[in-house]
Amino acid sequence: NDQVRSIILYGPPGTGKTTLAHIISKKTKGRFVRLNAVNASVKDVREVIERAEEARSLYEQKTILFLDEVHRFNRAQQDALLPAVERGVLILVGATTENPFHHVNGALLSRSTLFQLKPLTVEHAMQAMNKALADKNKGLGFLDVEVSDDALRHIATMSGGDIRKSLNALEFAVMAESPDQDGKV
């Protein structure tokens, strides 16, 4: 229903935090702005807020700010963001691998709903890898790849619930192998 409120997604890498933010960006009619806390400054935050205020007053359009690695924002950066979140100028979607209770301003936490994402299972990773092997446009489906379930299970197990690691390891294994004379990898 495009009724997003401020949320903080936290959990281990590769569990879908950024993917969920991407889904929100595709479903909202509002402005979707993305910042990475690793390289964003207070000036960047103030510019986003200024544009959000303009969009709100001129076009009655909401702004959703996806702040990746929110735990990396220092107190001054979080304090710059707080008034806009309090006034509803911005809807914050934060993503973090760290416990937000230790790294995110209590005032921002109290204005957000927390969602903890759990590590994914071996079966989830195997599903993602099988999908990547079949997808001709965004995956490895353009190649004739033969891989055993045991090999996929090994990659999934070694990736420890991180889908990104599973997919990267699969891609590396496939691309490192030369096709045979029939074109099969």
Give an overview of the whole structure.
The chain has 185 residues and is α/β, with parallel strands linked by helices. The chain is 47% helix and 15% strand. The chain has a 5-stranded parallel sheet with strand order 2-3-4-1-5. α2 (42-59) links the parallel β2 and β3. It is elongated.
Order of helices and strands: EHEHEHEHHEHHH
Strand order of the largest sheet: 2-3-4-1-5
What Rg is obtained from the alpha carbons, in whole angstroms?
Answer: 20 Å
Q: What is the straight-line distance between the termini?
A: 45 Å
Helix content: 40-55%
- Report the sheet with the most strands, covering strand number, pairing sense and barrel closure: 5 strands, parallel
The total count of strands amounts to 5
Tell me, what's the shape? elongated
> So how many helices?
8
Beta-strand percent range: 5-15%
Low-confidence stretches: none
Mean pLDDT: 92
Structural class by sheet pairing and helices: alpha/beta
Structure characteristics:
single chain; 185 residues; alpha/beta; five-stranded parallel beta sheet; 8 helices; 5 strands; 47% helix
List the helices and strands and how they pair.
Elements lengths: L6 E4 L6 H11 L3 E6 L5 H18 L3 E6 L6 H12 L3 E7 L3 H4 L2 H5 L2 E4 L5 H13 L14 H10 L4 H14 L9
Please outline what is shown here.
The protein is α/β, with parallel strands linked by helices. It is built from 8 helices and 5 strands; from the N terminus they run E-H-E-H-E-H-E-H-H-E-H-H-H.
